[in-house]
Design brief:
It contains seven helices and six strands, in the order E-H-E-H-E-H-E-H-H-E-E-H-H. With 207 residues, it is α/β, with parallel strands linked by helices. The protein has a single domain, classed as Rossmann fold, CATH 3.40.50.620. The mean pLDDT is 94. Bound molecules: adenosine-5'-triphosphate (ATP) and nicotinate mononucleotide. Catalyzes the reversible adenylation of nicotinate mononucleotide (NaMN) to nicotinic acid adenine dinucleotide (NaAD).
């Protein structure tokens, strides 16, 4: 028998996206396919309180780069929910807000790279977030993917094509006058140049 109104399956890819790069996009695409998600919402952070570097580009620039990067995929979208909420960005708020906007008939999957997954217990209200979404930890070159520190059955682990790209490396390259073509989408290369992002940023400690 055909199921009426099946629950919508929505992925959430949260990130500072300063800038968004192909590592983020490949991870989201792979998880969308693996879990048969109806859509993946990219959610740029407002104030990423745990980022080690002090300077983060304006939220509007990071939001627009994310819109540009996701525009060509009909299953990708970008949300302002975190950049429009004042104060530090906490995933517990992101999940409450998105759940409220979709209503009860939604199943949320929050996608995190191996590095973010390893730090999840330091997040605000970490004990609550696992009740609001299924967490999907994805592989990332240079980091070990493990859920040994997390509640049983709270997390799914997924291997994604290895993309040894980071936003900090992209920023370093722009500051050093090197190209970022093919590390970030073409439109994002052009947006960075048009807005003069990262040219004069601070030298960041190696990660
Ligand atoms: N190359 C990658 N492969 C898989 N996951 C990634 C990759 N890059 C980032 N992620 C994941 O995407 C999410 C958002 O990452 P973020 O926007 O902080 O990018 P970043 O490259 O880690 O930035 P930075 O170098 O400035 O710290 C995090 O969950 C992170 O683990
Ligand atoms: O909720 C928290 O306390 C928290 C702390 C650090 C990171 N996060 C979320 O994790 C995602 C990746 O963050 P980042 O800083 O690695 O770009 C993004 O959606 C953040 O809002 C969430």
């Amino acid at each position: 028998m055909r199921q009426e109104n099946p629950r919508r399956r929505v992925g959430i890819m949260g990130g500072t996206f300063d800038p968004i790069h192909h590592g983020h996009l490949v991870a989201a695409s792979e998880v969308q396919d693996r879990f048969g998600l109806d859509e993946v919402i990219f959610v740029p952070t407002g104030q990423p309180w745990q980022k080690g570097h002090t300077y983060v580009s304006p939220p509007e620039d990071r939001y627009l780069m994310t819109v540009i990067a996701t525009a060509s995929n009909p299953r990708f979208a970008t949300s302002r929910v975190d950049i429009d909420r004042p104060g530090p960005t906490y995933t517990v708020d992101t999940l409450h807000d998105l759940r409220a906007s979709y209503g009860v008939d939604v199943e949320l999957f929050f996608i995190t790279g191996a590095d973010a997954l390893s730090a999840i217990l330091s997040w605000k209200d970490a004990d609550q977030v696992f009740d609001l979404a299924t967490f999907v930890g994805v592989t990332r070159p240079g980091y070990e993917l493990s859920d040994a520190h997390l509640p049983r059955d709270a997390v799914r682990l997924v291997e994604v094509p290895a993309m040894a790209i980071s936003s900090s490396a992209c920023r370093d390259r722009v500051r050093g006058g090197k190209p970022v073509w093919y590390l970030v989408p073409d439109g994002v290369v052009q947006y960075i140049a048009k807005r003069g992002l990262y040219r004069n940023g601070p030298v960041e400690p190696p990660r």
